[in-house]
Amino acid sequence: MGTETYPKESEYSQFIADNGGLINAFTTTDKTVYMFSVETQAYKPALDRFSHFFIDPLFSVSCVGRELHVVDQEHAKNIENDLVRQWMVFKETGNPDQPNCNFLWESRNLI
């Protein structure tokens, strides 16, 4: 969704693609992992763009509905998975004050 430093919504993914790279991310029960690859000469500017998602992120009102839809779709896709169901039972029967009782999926499309 952009950053204050790089405000154009898809600038990061376009920069990565223009420099022969790929982006991906995944969320597990205890962490979210972001990754990217680019040609060597583009590494530092790619890392700068990436770091600004944590330094000065933009959360555009026009993107909120789309991001909520992404989270909902990921949840709907995973709800039938047996491992996910086991984790849901674990969360429901565990200590409600622990962070693992929070909602499981996060949108990796925020960047």
Describe the structure.
The chain is built from 4 helices and 2 strands. The protein is mainly α. The longest helix has 18 residues. The protein is elongated.
What is the element layout, followed by pairings?
Blueprint: H1 11-18, E1 22-27, E2 32-37, H2 43-55, H3 61-78, H4 82-93
Antiparallel strand pairs: 1-2
Q: Which structural traits does this protein have?
A:
about 110 residues, mainly alpha, 2 domains, two-stranded antiparallel sheet, about 45% helix, elongated, disordered C terminus
Give a brief rundown of this model.
This protein has 111 residues and is mostly helical. It is built from 4 helices and 2 strands, in the order αββααα. Strands 1-2 form a two-stranded antiparallel sheet.
Structural class based on helices, strands and sheet pairing: mainly alpha
Question: How many independent structural domains?
Answer: 2
Please report the total strand number as a whole number.
2
Largest sheet: 2 strands, antiparallel
Order of strands, widest sheet: 1-2
Rg measurement, Å: 17 Å
Order of helices and strands: HEEHHH
C-alpha end-to-end distance:
6 Å
User: What coarse outline follows from CA principal-axis ratios?
Assistant: elongated
Mean pLDDT: 84
Low-confidence stretches: 106-111
Percent helix range: 40-55%
| Beta-strand proportion | 5-15%
What's the number of helices? 4
